[in-house]
Every structure is written in structure tokens, then in C-alpha cells.
Amino acid sequence: MLEPRERRVGGHVPASDPLSPRRAFAGLPRIARPLVRYAPAEPWEQDTATLPAALQRYRRHVRAFAERELAPRALAFDTRPHLPVADRDEDARAVLRAAGRAGLLGDPLPRPLGSADPRLALHSLALTQALKTEELAAVDGGLMLLVCAHSLGATPLILSGELRHLRRVVRAYRACERGEPHIFAFAITEPAAGSDVEEGHGAAAYRPGVVARPDGGGYRLRGRKVFISGGDLADETVVFAALEGEGMASWTAFVVPRTAPGFRVVRTELKMGMRASGAAELELDDVLVPADGVVGAVRGGWALNRATLNLSRLPVAAMAVGFARAATDLALDFACQHRLGRRRLIDFQDVQLELAEMMADTAAARAMVWAAARRTQPLQREASAAKFHCTDVGARVATRAMDLLGNHAVLHRERVEKVFRDVRLTQIFEGTNQINRLAVIEDLQETILARIAAPPRTP
């Protein structure tokens, strides 16, 4: 006899029924059970258990931080008034202080240089940052970006390999751990060029808008950068500028303090999603950067830019996995708690089919990110493919969640519409998904040319 409906999901026998796999596997010979039998567990726990011990601890730590510090603030941050740039955002700085004390603003480097467990250095930076962005995004997209944009800003300084800039990063990380956040931002986008400056063919035809003019032993920077995540709060911004009279091949990275004369935050955008993180427009009016403010080599900015993007696109893909996970969890909760007539939504098999598709898409996207991120040296074709594929998957899963919730989907308190708005941004920043598709082909150019040159294959 079947157990009461409350002890099973509609269309399925209860776990105690002889026809349930759970019950059937328990009757297999002892030698076979380890191969097929497993205890019921949350998918998150099962995925975490596959990670090495240090990564398991890190993933749990980030999740606990997100649930403790971000979840209670998420909806309020999304609906608060748009602040003028002149107003100091104390609420955002409170989040950054908490993140700094939790070690999440200095974790690209191991202790004593940064805040990460030294055992994490045995694993790729892309993987640890992907774990972080997924966990934070699963709770809130805007606050995730508020915390994570800082790591993007610090990456060119670390990749430069220069001791003076490494010291700069270490000092900032230590201040963050003390609860005194010192934030970096990454500025490449210009009013006339977004993804143009993230792909070689477009960059070759682009006339740079931010220009550096030699002045004594340093450079004078003039121009504007736009859509700079965290640029409104950053203490130092890595600004990419072309040398006066030259093209993008002369791009050079400069670190510009917030207090530099001529440097100004013009405004922050009123955005569709990720509203807790400012997208700033920055003005540089003859800003003097001394020689020691050059990051890496003069004319070495293009290499630093592309290397930074290869590292950062996998965490962006992981953001989308976090959004897909959040949308799936919210849809599942809704299906469990709401009824159509006298039946729970979860008891309808068409609802189960939708949820299963969402779960499968999310799991496949995560597997793609983890596989690519485990490489010590990220491959451009894998990082770009993960970025465009996973963000498209995240948007598709969020759309399915909206459909499943019906008229409830537009309610802010349900959070699904917020995930829907947040995930859309991941398809645009870090190179639009169209540019990332082209980056896959760019990385395979030598292979493709070899095939073109090879003799035709005979049938």
C-alpha cells in the first residue's frame, strides 16, 4: 500500500517502497552496494564532497558568509534609491568591511601575502575564484559583484610581476583583513568601445579614447572610462591608456589613486541588475601618473588585459552557475509550497520535467567551469566558451523559473525576477558573448590554418 501523499512526490513511489531504487539497492549483495548505493543528500553537499579538502572548506566558508552577510541585505540593496556619486555609500562599505574580515577581499594570494589558506595555492586561482563567485551569486548578484570586482582590479598588478605593485596589493589586502577596505578597480571600457577593447581585430581598428602623454618622468592621462564595476568606491584604479599618437598596440596600464588631481567619478549608472555594485563613469583630466605608476611594461597593457580576462572569464561563468542555482532553488521552493487546486505544484509531472531540465543545465554548466578552471594555466578557448555558454544557460534557467512561477515571478519578494535581471549582465560584461565566441576561434587560429593548408581528405 502506498504511503500518504505527504510522504512522496506525485508520480513516484515512496522511498520505502520495494520498487524504489533506494530500497532496491539496499538489497543488493554487499560487494555491489559500494558501486551503486548512496545516501540521500543535497546536490550541493554531493558536489562539495568531490572537491579536495581545502576547497571544500573554502566553499563552505564562502557559502556561510553569503548567507550570513549578503542574504539579509539583498532585497533592500536592490530597491534603495540611486545614490549620487558625492554621497559616501556606507552600506556598501559595511559589506566590504565584513568581506575583508572574512578574508574574501585578499584570497587571490595565500597567507602571509593575502588571506587565503596556503593549501589553496595548490589549486588554480581560477577555480578558487569560480567557487567564490558561484556561492556569492547564488545569494545575491549585486553584492557578489561589489565584493568580487576588487579581485579583478588587483589582477593586473599581480600579473605584472613587479615587486612594487605586489607590495601595493599586499598592503591593500592586509588593510581589508583589518576591516579597512582598500579597493581596486579595473578600467578598460570607453564610451566608444566596450568589447572592441577585448578582441584583437576590433582593437586594431579602434581609435583609443583614453590617451597617455609623456610628461617628465611620468605620463598625463586624459579621457573617460565607463561601466567600471566598483569604480565609485575604488581607492586605486588600473586604467588602460594608449600612448599619444599611437593605437591599441601601445596600450599601457597605469594605477591611478582616487585622490589624484584631475581624476573624478562622474556618475554611476542606474542599472537593470546587480544594482548593489556601482558601474561608474570615470574622468581623467590631465591626471599625472609618475613612472612608478606604470603597471608592467610600457606598451604591455594589451597583454595584461588579455591575461586578466582569461583568468576572470571563468569566475564570470561561475556567477551564471550561481544564478542558475538560485533560480532553480527558488522555483523548487515555490513548487513545494504552492498548490494548484488541491495538488502541490511539485506533484505535477510537467513541473517536475521543467525542474529536472533546470537542474541538469545548472549541473552541466558547473561541470564545464570546474573542468576548465582546474587547469593551472586557463586556456582562452575554454575560458571564453565557458563564459558564453554558462551565462546563456544561466539566462535560460532564470527564464524557465520565471515561467514556472507565473504571475508570482514578477513579485520582488520572490527574488526570481531579481535573478532574471542580474544574470542578464553576465552575458554582456567581460566581453559580450558574441566576442567570447570569436575568442574561441581566435585561440584556435593556428589549428584552423593548419587544416586549411593540409591536403584534402580522401573519402
Can you put this structure into words, describing what you see?
- The strands form 2 sheets. Strands 1, 2, 3, 4, 5, 6, 7 and 8 form an 8-stranded mixed beta sheet that branches.
- It is globular, with a radius of gyration of 24 Å.
- The longest helix is centred in the C-terminal third of the chain and has 37 residues, at 301-337.
- The chain contains 16 helices and 10 strands.
- The protein is α+β, with helices and mostly antiparallel strands.
- It has 3 domains: 44-182, Acyl-CoA dehydrogenase/oxidase, N-terminal domain (Butyryl-Coa Dehydrogenase, subunit A, domain 1), CATH 1.10.540.10; 186-300, Beta Barrel (Butyryl-CoA Dehydrogenase, subunit A, domain 2), CATH 2.40.110.10; 303-449, Butyryl-CoA Dehydrogenase, subunit A, domain 3.
